[in-house]
Amino acid sequence: MTKDELRVLLEDVRHGRLEVDAALDRLKTLPYEDLGFAKVDHHRALRKGFPEVVFCQGKTTDQVVEIVQRLCGNNRTVLATRAAREVYEAVRAVFSDAVYSELARTIVVYRGERPQPKGNVLVMSAGTADLPVAEEAVVTAEVMGNHVRRCYDVGVAGIHRLLDKLDLIQWAHVIIVVAGMEGALASVVAGLAEQPVIAVPTSVGYGANFHGLAALLTMLNSCASGIGVVNIDNGFGAAALASAITRMIVGPE
Amino acid sequence: MTKDELRVLLEDVRHGRLEVDAALDRLKTLPYEDLGFAKVDHHRALRKGFPEVVFCQGKTTDQVVEIVQRLCGNNRTVLATRAAREVYEAVRAVFSDAVYSELARTIVVYRGERPQPKGNVLVMSAGTADLPVAEEAVVTAEVMGNHVRRCYDVGVAGIHRLLDKLDLIQWAHVIIVVAGMEGALASVVAGLAEQPVIAVPTSVGYGANFHGLAALLTMLNSCASGIGVVNIDNGFGAAALASAITRMIVGPE
Amino acid sequence: MTKDELRVLLEDVRHGRLEVDAALDRLKTLPYEDLGFAKVDHHRALRKGFPEVVFCQGKTTDQVVEIVQRLCGNNRTVLATRAAREVYEAVRAVFSDAVYSELARTIVVYRGERPQPKGNVLVMSAGTADLPVAEEAVVTAEVMGNHVRRCYDVGVAGIHRLLDKLDLIQWAHVIIVVAGMEGALASVVAGLAEQPVIAVPTSVGYGANFHGLAALLTMLNSCASGIGVVNIDNGFGAAALASAITRMIVGPE
Amino acid sequence: MTKDELRVLLEDVRHGRLEVDAALDRLKTLPYEDLGFAKVDHHRALRKGFPEVVFCQGKTTDQVVEIVQRLCGNNRTVLATRAAREVYEAVRAVFSDAVYSELARTIVVYRGERPQPKGNVLVMSAGTADLPVAEEAVVTAEVMGNHVRRCYDVGVAGIHRLLDKLDLIQWAHVIIVVAGMEGALASVVAGLAEQPVIAVPTSVGYGANFHGLAALLTMLNSCASGIGVVNIDNGFGAAALASAITRMIVGPE
Amino acid sequence: MTKDELRVLLEDVRHGRLEVDAALDRLKTLPYEDLGFAKVDHHRALRKGFPEVVFCQGKTTDQVVEIVQRLCGNNRTVLATRAAREVYEAVRAVFSDAVYSELARTIVVYRGERPQPKGNVLVMSAGTADLPVAEEAVVTAEVMGNHVRRCYDVGVAGIHRLLDKLDLIQWAHVIIVVAGMEGALASVVAGLAEQPVIAVPTSVGYGANFHGLAALLTMLNSCASGIGVVNIDNGFGAAALASAITRMIVGPE
Amino acid sequence: MTKDELRVLLEDVRHGRLEVDAALDRLKTLPYEDLGFAKVDHHRALRKGFPEVVFCQGKTTDQVVEIVQRLCGNNRTVLATRAAREVYEAVRAVFSDAVYSELARTIVVYRGERPQPKGNVLVMSAGTADLPVAEEAVVTAEVMGNHVRRCYDVGVAGIHRLLDKLDLIQWAHVIIVVAGMEGALASVVAGLAEQPVIAVPTSVGYGANFHGLAALLTMLNSCASGIGVVNIDNGFGAAALASAITRMIVGPE
Amino acid sequence: MTKDELRVLLEDVRHGRLEVDAALDRLKTLPYEDLGFAKVDHHRALRKGFPEVVFCQGKTTDQVVEIVQRLCGNNRTVLATRAAREVYEAVRAVFSDAVYSELARTIVVYRGERPQPKGNVLVMSAGTADLPVAEEAVVTAEVMGNHVRRCYDVGVAGIHRLLDKLDLIQWAHVIIVVAGMEGALASVVAGLAEQPVIAVPTSVGYGANFHGLAALLTMLNSCASGIGVVNIDNGFGAAALASAITRMIVGPE
Amino acid sequence: MTKDELRVLLEDVRHGRLEVDAALDRLKTLPYEDLGFAKVDHHRALRKGFPEVVFCQGKTTDQVVEIVQRLCGNNRTVLATRAAREVYEAVRAVFSDAVYSELARTIVVYRGERPQPKGNVLVMSAGTADLPVAEEAVVTAEVMGNHVRRCYDVGVAGIHRLLDKLDLIQWAHVIIVVAGMEGALASVVAGLAEQPVIAVPTSVGYGANFHGLAALLTMLNSCASGIGVVNIDNGFGAAALASAITRMIVGPE
């Protein structure tokens, strides 16, 4: 509610066009709903198909099913991450069209109109063991309305394979680099690309990897600029940030 | 060098239009120059005024001056970060038009045509002690061709001050949040905003802050999505990432 | 009391200059037994219904049952925390009126007179996965004689939901904030409230959360004042501290 | 602004008793000022003499002086912590009645009516080197309107000295325990006392103390209940929490 | 082999009482066997019944049985630590007189003459969950020839229970303090006792305990003197050190 | 492709001995294949039998089998590390001549000509629990064409056993020291030997070992020179580095 | 002693059934003052010359001088550790016979009768940079009544130098091993010696030494038994523990 | 002393050609001198010019000078590392031909015959701030008898510059990679090279670099094989390991 709208409301009250109680009702919700706080509900309603997200880890299967049901009731697409197969089975019992990715551990229940893909998101990773995180990013970025391409056969220990993918790099608006072990891939890619690079350290590794700490520190300390880092194994978060960027680039529809 | 250009070259050799040695010379530089590796030189040359950057920490004053001289020789704007006042004095002795920010510890020597500011970058911070990092981000974002606004009087312990700045938040294409202590500001801002948020933890604090580790972990673990994190105190890096994003949004000129 | 003074006292007793009871009174304050060390027994006996506590983790089911039996023999209410369901089954076999909370993992066996609830304790948390810790705090605070209210649907990434709960905040004498992930909720609540805030980091999260370290550091570094922090996942400890405070506020009965 | 006050305002507009613009002005500030967000201004104004606080570390002397001047202009007492002597000299040049504690590194400029001390706060510490932190707590607690007593000659390595102070412990509403090295004092005191204990680890120590980490962990892991922990060396924070508690106990005036 | 023995050997060679080859054989083993390197074999042979030790963790059941068999073949008592019940079953199949402690996870197979207990070792601990470590110390100290007493019902949160045990403390030559959580017991005991105190942090605890790190740091930073610390959960190591001390005190038999 | 070869190619084009398209084809692969990037393929092809390596951890059994099949198709020996028995069973179903080491958790499928062992690699370790890592090094070093000897019965706590092995030490070109617990063996060996020492910390230990961190730090801080350290438990990496060294010593065939 | 028992005792005194002295004897052991709490005063008074200790770090020069004066007033020898030269100068101005060790940073002011040295303490260290810590141990052990020998030219990287010192090792009752860098010396010495070994990690080193953490972890994880560890750089603590041991061995005079 | 020599000695004793006392004297030194322990003295004497090394950090200038004097007295080349300029000045006062490298902080005093350079060592680094460490490696490797080449203008953020240096890489027997920040260069180089790579993390960086920890972890976790890591900033250690390798390759002269 802008200042002008507020003035109109008050004028309406003054001239008897609006009852005090009605005005009260509208003003009561003012502090947050009209000030843009209720971002999720309002803005998202404008962008049809933008998903609601459920992080399944730490929730019981029953809790997840209940939340998914509530959210789908709003005719909104729902994305559930970190979902074990048994969670999917339970969700599918309710929503038979739920889509599961074993690798990404994601469930998607599409509702409403699906958005036209617009932004170009490239998801790169080096090792086979990083794929679950990379695929979580892929599924998320797609559900959020992006064209997504995968580039999974690269790694700094065989840098020539990376150099072969320069066209893919140029295609992207945003590049997500998923890497475990020492996580050096993000630096090398950011040195080759001008686009924003989102680095996702993974917990893949052992010993002095300390469950992803090594890759995390590598990425935070990159001597290449243009890199933003998200939490270890947070493929979803990387794709959400990528989508926040592509939304700006191609406009929010 | 595209495949077609390569074919032309070979045809020229075949028909004697190009000497073997001349062809050799051109092919010798093929592996990296023509494959787009030389990103900096080529692309940057197209965008006049995009700066070269010198990170002064760990370099002697003499080394910095020498590097700045070399870079300015290419008619390129130079940005030096983490520059103590004595470094600035030495640079100014050579480039009398060098601009110094005491707070940001930056030196800028403008050369060539200055770019038209295009992207909108909002730099937010909470505490007075975070200002050096915030200002480093401001100077960098400006030199890289963005409109920059500051929003320095906010903090989660007085959240009403933040709610007053919603218009500023809506203005921005990208928001940089600079925060020390517990670093919670990034989460709150990302909860209010749809734009990409770049979080910069600072080393401001004491005790269990562990020189910025507390704020870093807070930002990496944010329950709000759309946040990319850079290294502790890395105001430059945040602005470089912001510029990589706005460059995509508004086009590279 | 020096050795000489003690001798004089005994001589006085011997010669009838001092009554046995008077001597007893003076000796009663000799260190340890009469100096209040036996706090638990003495003071607690005065406040009927104040619970004895058994921390089950690391104890065998047999050990827990034996300890509960011994404590209940004193006609005292017993609270067992971190109790798995099988521990509860074993306790119920002995005390059929034992009350179990699956979520909080607590067993309560009420004995003696139950105290009149007096202090007002508000338990806030953000995520579904934090509920076990929050509920441990709820059960503990109730057993220790407090009115308890829950406020579980708040989080800094949707700050408007928090602002809706200001009346709850004003009701409380003490506020317990249970938060995992980045743990920023404590700062925001302490910025809104004047009451003491007890912050409980939880181990909910992954990656750079490091099993609750992120939330712990956030809370310790809060820029808001009036926050005391307890151990990660220590819902019991938060409620015990809250009860120590409300006991002072409303008087120890 | 309560719902009733809002209704009155609207009625006034309706009946022409209040101009639209005037109503607009009042409503404009509604979201935060009238919802209790502006806690500091409103509530504090009721309790005369409650201090404003300036954390000097990381601020220049000029910045501190400017902030103190602004705050004192509101006729409010100002407490500056972590203030070096030169900062004090600069403040005294403006406010000749500023009071400095060399040991606590605090400056106090009293303004307005001083509050009647009400709550009883006991500050305990073990070692000479912990005194700066303990004294910061003492000064803060006094300025915030508490009776404060010191108990500095205790330590777990000579536990008999502690047992001699049981009367002091019984006097207190809240006990602040300041301890470096291994920080075990908090556990022992909380085992003896029923009151809330606020534990302040200090960075006093060396080697495997890791700048206060040892004492911090000890306090967080205490097997005694009723302990809330604040940041390392945060004497101010402990006293602020203690004051939040005593304010509840004795009423906010 | 002492210098004198060496001289005798050479004289024997010189006078033909010893063949060169025989001398060679004896000298060949000189560097380590006769220079005291072979400490275990030589010295231990003097003290009948001193045990050989097998650390079972990380070894297969077969490996443990094989090692125990080999060692017992030398008519030496064998102590196996960190032994699961199935390991014991396998050992008992070979040595039917093997003694198992479920709590301490130790197996003892007595061989040869058992030593007369001499040193007095007191093992103290606070919590039920610390008992496995404490009992490992008890069994080890007994097998190594000490009188051992337990004092398991003490803890700093109820310090009066500790003060009741002063006679036990005075009885001991060496005191082993086993403590998890915050580990403060070691400081308190060392403040009361003049004897050497060996502190064993345990991994009992949760959250910011970090698997025993908290107790470890507490013990290393103790403000009481006369404390030596061993590894987390290393009950065996504490008893071995205690035995090294009592061996000096009472003489090696 | 050397400069000379490139000249020949161009001459061939010029004189019509090579078609433009054929030249194009060869040049297309130039940037990485001919510049030595494709190290694995080219160089390894020269040394028959040099293995391809599959790191099984984090890969499904199906993925491992598929990769092994693909690699063996090139008539190359394949070494799979961190392979559970079930992975071996699956591989053996395809390659009946696959060789499994239970202890080392390695699978080897020999193809092509086996290299003549040349370099001498000594693998030393102290404890039984370190054997899996040591054996991984042994198998790897053998497959990579080295003579390997084991020296497993040494440890700094019984240094005389080490001194007995000086001849083995002198035999080696490179020494791999595998050690858990405190990892001191590397320093002692490097103090005795002049050859390069490769130190492999293992995660064997408990408590303040922190999963191999203790041994890792010990090895990195060794006061003996000539030590290179690899990741915790990385027996493969140590042998690969040893092979890189022996390849230089004895020549690459 | 219960209240009833106390009453009986007093009645017995009153009626002459118990002598005053006998009653006194029984009461003497009542907790705290007569139960040995006042350990320092009582026991130490018996052993003339046993020092009082002042830890100077974190204290001002004035504070140190004042404490030393107070302690010397009791005719007790005073040992001040971590004392800078200026502290010594100030102490010497008051006590002209104060003895300073530049290397150990210790001040000793002898008062009363000096004890006859009894226990044999060997202080070993490897590097020149460890000497301040080693000398602090030497001075402390001497002041506490031990014969002390130094063995400073040993290190595991040149193990033959250590083997030359076996006679010194055999002479000692207790061995203090001071080592920085990787700290492996403690393990090697404990492998050679049967006596208790007290290991002192020092902060000597750089990089991954982390200010002594590497040596600390090495020592805690030693595979040799019979080692107790004290805090990093805590030469005093090692000597105090050594003295607690030798006191037991040779009797407390 | 070989077994044969020992036999000769005994025969000499038997036949009276050698006195018992003389034999005793020779045997007394047997344990270490003749067993090859005295590696430094014996072997080094064979290779003229191989340096003695003094690590200056933590030593006083006087101590360094004294040690250098003693070592040079043996006609041996001395290398002093971590030497401040004032240390050099003091050394030069005694040895006027001492050579100082300001950047590497090394002093070399050549004595005896200088070795013929044999091995080829390439020292690579990325940033200007890493040069002190890189140069320490260069000086050390040269003094130890290697040909050394520098390659300082490479970094993964501009990978094309690295690809230009493939000939240098091929020239080397061993490659030392010095890198701070995220330390990714080691992985990239090891991916391109077949030679052993020695990785030296440097403490260059800030924030989440944690004084070199980031680069250290990166290097330890490298997905490229053939990398050995040394301590942070340990340029000397890298060169010593490189020399141990080249000594094997080209033979020890």
From TrEMBL, chains A, B, C, D, E, F, G, H:
One Gene Ontology MF term: hydrolase activity
Pfam families reported for this sequence: AIRC (PF00731)
InterPro entries for the chain: P2CMN_synthase_LarB, PurE_dom
The organism of origin for this protein: Desulfofundulus thermosubterraneus DSM 16057
Gene3D superfamilies listed in its UniProt record: 3.40.50.1970
Domain PurE: 119-251
PANTHER family, A to Z: PHOSPHORIBOSYLAMINOIMIDAZOLE CARBOXYLASE-RELATED, SLL1489 PROTEIN
Cross-referenced SMART domains: AIRC (SM01001)
Biological classification of the source: Bacteria, Bacillati, Bacillota, Clostridia, Eubacteriales
Protein name: PurE domain-containing protein
A GO biological-process term: 'de novo' IMP biosynthetic process
Segment forming the signal sequence: none
Domain of life from the UniProt record: Bacteria
